[in-house]
Amino acid sequence: MWEVQLKYQKLDPFAQKEVDDFIDFLLSKKNKRKVDMKSYQEKLLTVSTWSEDDIKVFEENAKLFNNWTIEEW
After folding, report:
1. Burial class of residue 61 in the structure, from the number of CB atoms within 10 Å of its CB (0-12 exposed, 13-18 middle, 19+ buried)
2. Concatenated DSSP letters of 19-68
3. Measured torsion, CA atoms of residues 10, 13, 17, 19, in degrees rounded to the nearest 10
4. How confident is the model at residue 60 (pLDDT cuts 50, 70, 90)?
5. Element (H or E) spanning 14, and its range?
6. Is the pLDDT at 30 greater than 90, yes or no?
7. Could you tell me which residues come within 8 angstroms of residue 16 by beta carbon, excluding any fewer than 6 positions away?
8. CA torsion 20→25→30→32, rounded to 10°?
9. What is the dihedral of CA 12, 17, 19, 21, to 10 degrees?
10. How far is 53 from 73, CA to CA, in rounded Å?
C-alpha cells in the first residue's frame, strides 16, 4: 500500500485529482443498486406535461422576440 502512496505523492495536483475521481467512480460502480423499473415508470407517469395553450405562449413570445428591433447607439 505504501508504494501506491509514494506514487500518488509524485503526481502533480491535477493528476492526483484524476486519481481521486477514478477511485470515486470505481466506488460508485460498486455501490450501485438495481433500478426498480416499476417505481421508475410510476415516477415518469407523474411528470407534468404542457398543453397546447402552454406551448402557444412560448411560440408567440418567440415571434415577438424575433420582430424586436435592436437600438443602435
Report:
1. exposed
2. HHHHHHHHHHHHTPPPP-HHHHHHHHHTS----HHHHHHHHHHHHHHHTP
3. -10
4. very high
5. helix 13-30
6. no
7. 8
8. 140
9. -170
10. 38
